[in-house]
Automatic annotation (TrEMBL):
The lineage of its organism: Bacteria, Pseudomonadati, Pseudomonadota, Betaproteobacteria, Burkholderiales. HAMAP family: Maf (MF_00528). It catalyses: dTTP + H2O = dTMP + diphosphate + H(+); UTP + H2O = UMP + diphosphate + H(+). The record marks 13, 82, 164 as: Important for substrate specificity. Its cofactor is a divalent metal cation. This is dTTP/UTP pyrophosphatase.
Length: 204
């Protein structure tokens, strides 16, 4: 049994969570010719939970093929995807600052969902889980939104904010998994890796 996993994600926050868990990992990132963005396209009428689980499964399919193509040693592969949802509206990563401001205006003063799906595979065994949390934003002023977007933090983040960053100033209530909102739910990840037989931190 391997004593490490492959993480198929470029997110530094997910690396941070794995390090906090005491899990050894190596990155298994897409090749230059892989269209990683196309995987995240939303299908017409797709519900947020269905979307995030489907995208995570596609990411895992691509990572498994990548591992075989590169001839790398076998080890569990972990993939994740996070999305923010207000009702059935899905908020992915903003395309630019204007888009980030729009998202924050729409999330201002609301309680929205943050869904993080995870999937792991080792050999033929594949497991998946979903973390579903609620985040309540205070009402944001236009000045607050402009200043936050100008900080650069919202870019590259689902819903245009990072719970572990300055956006914490806007959050009046949080229910669910803090690490899940960051992008990798510790509890569910530990359950999956333990089920795959990974000898991790003894606290597992």
């Amino acid at each position: 049994m391997s004593d490490f996993i492959y993480l198929a994600s470029q997110s530094p926050r997910r690396r941070q969570v794995l390090e906090q868990m005491g899990v050894r990992f190596e990155l298994l990132l897409p090749d230059a010719d892989e269209d990683a963005e196309a995987i995240e396209a939303v299908l017409p009428g797709e519900a947020p939970a269905t979307y995030v689980k489907r995208v995570t499964g596609l990411k895992l399919d691509a990572a498994v093929a990548r591992l075989k193509r590169r001839g790398l040693p076998p080890a569990p592969i972990l993939c994740c995807d996070t999305t923010v949802a207000l009702g059935r509206t899905i908020y992915g990563k903003p395309v630019d600052e204007r888009d980030a401001r729009r998202m924050l205006r729409e999330l201002s003063g609301t309680t929205h969902r943050v869904l993080t799906a995870i999937a792991a595979q080792h050999g033929r065994k594949r497991l998946a889980a979903l973390s579903d949390s609620r985040v309540t934003f205070a009402a944001l002023t236009p000045v607050q939104i402009r200043a936050y977007v100008a900080s650069g933090e919202p870019l590259g983040k689902a819903g245009a904010y990072a719970v572990q960053g300055r956006a914490a100033l806007f959050i009046s209530r949080l229910r669910g998994s803090y690490s899940g909102i960051m992008g990798l739910p510790m509890f569910e990840t530990a359950q999956l890796l333990r089920a795959l037989g990974l000898p991790c931190n003894k606290t597992f």
